[in-house]
Amino acid sequence: MALDTLKARRREDYGFTLEYRTRWSDNDMYHHLNNSIYYFLFDSIVNTYLIQYCNLHPPTSSQIGLVVHSHCDYFSPIEFPAVVDLTLRVKKLGKSSVEYEIGVFEKGKDEVCAVGGFVHVFVEREGRRPRKEGMGEELMTGLRRIAGEEKARL
């Protein structure tokens, strides 16, 4: 996707939002949010959504999501102390896989600071292979709620 398109993202482009308060330890030596923290945040918003809206409970579920690809484009720095809105949408939904897009916005600012995402492939915990029937209806239904242009606002 073109960087200009990603830089133009707004909160309303996403169906789910999670607030995060930065910590002093999130900063790197350049006094801005360390790149690795963005991936921590991506994982947090996706798993929060999966637990709250898709009835997925990673410690006990027979099905787990494996990350097979991740990326992030950075547009402006965030530094401590800050409150950020993490925003989530499903970019592409397959039979056993889902591609998420996450926007990171600093509270009170309209411009997106970073846009990233990752691909989950849902597999059986034992054997690490996708189910023949795919990820299952409950998971699929929850993910459809924030997919594409017809997403719900949660």
From TrEMBL:
One Pfam family, short name: 4HBT
Q: SUPFAM superfamilies in the record, alphabetically?
A: Thioesterase/thiol ester dehydrase-isomerase (SSF54637)
Q: Name one GO molecular function term.
A: isomerase activity
Which residues belong to any copy of the Thioesterase domain?
31-113
Please indicate if the UniProt record lists ATP-binding as a keyword.
no
- Tell me the keywords, alphabetical order: Hydrolase, Isomerase
Please state which protein family the record places this protein in: Belongs to the 4-hydroxybenzoyl-CoA thioesterase family.
Question: Which PANTHER family does this chain map to?
Answer: 4-HYDROXYBENZOYL-COA THIOESTERASE FAMILY MEMBER, NOVEL THIOESTERASE SUPERFAMILY DOMAIN AND SAPOSIN A-TYPE DOMAIN CONTAINING PROTEIN (0610012H03RIK)
What is the protein's given name?
Thioesterase/thiol ester dehydrase-isomerase
- What species is given as this protein's source? Pleomassaria siparia CBS 279.74
Classification of source organism: Eukaryota, Fungi, Dikarya, Ascomycota, Pezizomycotina
